[in-house]
Amino acid sequence: MERKSFLTFLVSALLFLLLIVGCSNDEPAEGGNVSDGETDTEETSDDNGEGGEESALPPMTEDEITLTYASWANGQLNEFLADRFMEKYPNITVEVVHLEFDGWNDHLTNLASTGDLPDVYWYLGNVDVPIRNGWLGDITEYFENDPESEDILSTLKIQGYFDGERKLAAPMQLLPFTIYLDENLFNQMNVDMPSADWTYSEMLELMQEMTVPEQGIFGYNTFTQLLTMAPIVNNDAFGEFGWDGEKYDLTKDWADAITQHAQFVRSGVHAPFFDTDEAEAAFGDRLQWAASTGRVAMQLDAWWTIDLFATPEFQDRGINWVPYPVPRGDNAESLHKPAFVDFGAISSGTDHPREAYELLKFFGWGKDGWLAKLEAFETLTHEDGNPVFTFPYGLPLINDEEIWDGVAALLPQNEYYSNFLERVREPIPLGGASQPGFQTFLDEVYFGGEYGDVQAAIINGEVNAHDIAQNLTDMANRIREEVMEDLFW
Questions:
Q1: CATH: 3.40.50.300, 3.40.50.1260, 3.10.180.10, 3.40.190.10. Which one for 6-173+341-409?
Q2: Keywords assigned by UniProt (predicted)?
Q3: DSSP character for 145?
Q4: Most CB atoms closer than 10 Å: which of 83, 109, 166, 178?
Q5: Which among 237, 268, 271 is positioned nearest to 254, based on CA atoms?
Q6: Are strands 65-70 and 120-123 parallel, antiparallel or unpaired?
Q7: Where does the pLDDT of residue 56 fall: very low under 50, low under 70, confident under 90, or very high at 90 and above?
């Protein structure tokens, strides 16, 4: 089997999608479940006539069937979406499988061992696990003949083709990296808030400007990392560690970013780490999170933290965290930005792959599903009457202004949120869930190899990032090749 270039594949896949919409297929999808055995093109939408778009998808069954679904998304949201799907398809019963998040892949393994792997499910972190166990059902024929696939954000549409040919998984949830700035602290220091179109180097300069040692004010604190952001935004990369679709490269932006971060840690631009003597000296409490002190200008974090920052714990302390997109690379040609992206798949053993695909889409990128999510974000309440969602959890996976406007309407009505939403539509998933072999590299080399924890070793001054970057690059590419060979050839 020929191993295809990612970039070549991207171009050809997009052209293929443009050509195939509205065309018929002579062959049914492998393992497809078509009630009447026919696969002729229907002049209906994929929901059997509720829309007007032409679809090359085979029709849905009219038999009474049951599909199972498992994800770690909010349980009430899952049940709400299942109800909406069953309203759309009354002959299909959806059973939500509730699993503990801890040990998620182990729970899937146990279910698979008894033949009970859910028809549709999310996998956690390491994509090698479902590939190696043969859990991933092939959705290529459905996905590439589905007009709704055209609407998926371009950087996410190409995900899930792990062997370069078959569509085996799809993005289900998008949670972009988010840089939170404390607007009150900026005002207090008479420093202008940056433009939403700020650049990576501007962010670094602002971190230093906002550091005032004599007042105990720090430029930034981290959950997400500069070393993840820099290679993606500066190189228009398609993945972590400079992944360009064919290979990794840690020799430039990764090495520069971790070196810069280490210098910032040692010089006090970065806030003291949690549960350290430095944190106790700075804040009077070694267990206080730096972002809750009112003395940190930027918190490098994720979209979901917006819920926490809206609580009285922060507001009562005079902290006003507002969201900014990860800055653009100084010479970037794209708006590629890192994001937490959760992936889902249909079971390779499902008896109803056509219907399972529709369920996967509804809970993931489908517009009807997103309309239901917007309703859930606005209306779901706990038993005590309090809303389940303070903010929309996750952002749209599709280029549909009705959906993006619906999300915007549920957010505070100011420029920070509107600017953020406009600039996070080219998300780049992290490596573990999207790149075979990535987690193996992390486990065996990056956090557990000859340098120990590479990041800690660099921060502690034990090794120089540029001295080891080529070795790390070589090992990352070698491990990927070995894992791909093992999994697919």
A1: 3.40.190.10
A2: Sugar transport, Transport
A3: T
A4: 178
A5: 237
A6: parallel
A7: confident
Asked, colleague to colleague, whether 6-173+341-409 and 176-337+436-488 share their fold, the answer is yes
CA distance 25 to 14: 18
How far is residue 249's CA from residue 243's CA, in Å, rounded to a whole number?
A: 7
C-alpha span between 185 and 453 (Å, rounded) = 34
For the chain, domain boundaries: 6-173+341-409, 176-337+436-488
Closest residue by Cα to residue 324 from 189, 152, 155, 202: 202
Angle between helices 401-409 and 415-422 (to 10 degrees): 150
Residue 13 has which token pair?
A: 């896949």
pTM: 0.88
pLDDT score recorded for residue 54: 59
Determine the Cα–Cα distance for residues 359 and 351; give it in Å rounded to an integer: 14
DSSP 189-242: TT-PPPPTT-BHHHHHHHHHHT-BGGGTBEEEEESS-HHHHHHHHHHT-SSGGG
Sign of CA pseudo-dihedral 194, 200, 202, 204: positive
Q: How far is the C-alpha of 473 from the C-alpha of 447, rounded, in Å?
A: 14
Residue 451: pLDDT over 50: yes
Q: Where are the beta strands (DSSP E) in 63-191?
A: 65-70, 92-96, 120-123, 170-182
H or E element at residue 265: helix 253-267
Q: What is the band of 47 on the pLDDT scale with cuts at 50, 70, 90? A: very low
CA-based torsion, 209, 210, 214, 218: positive or negative: negative
Q: How far apart are CA 346 and CA 342, in angstroms?
A: 14
More confident residue, 43 or 258: 258
* CB contact at 8 A, 423 and 196: yes
Report the alpha-carbon distance of residue 96 to residue 109 in Å, rounded: 17
Asked whether 218 and 249 are in contact (CB, 8 A), the reply is no
The H or E element spanning position 327 is none
Query: What would be the CATH architecture of the domain defined by 176-337+436-488?
Result: 3-Layer(aba) Sandwich (3.40)
- pLDDT value of residue 282: 96
3-state secondary structure of 18: helix
Residue 53's pLDDT is what? 53
Residue that is written with structure tokens 């500066």 in the block: 234
Query: What value does the mean pLDDT take over residues 116-134?
Result: 97
Considering only CA atoms, which of 480, 471, 396, 470 is closest in space to residue 431? 480
Q: How far apart are CA 392 and CA 340, in angstroms?
A: 15
Characterize the bridge pairing of strands 120-123 and 337-346: antiparallel
Q: What mean pLDDT comes out for the span 401-426?
A: 98
Unique residue bearing structure tokens 């009457």: 385
Residue-by-residue DSSP string for 59-75: PPP-S-EEEEEE-SS-H
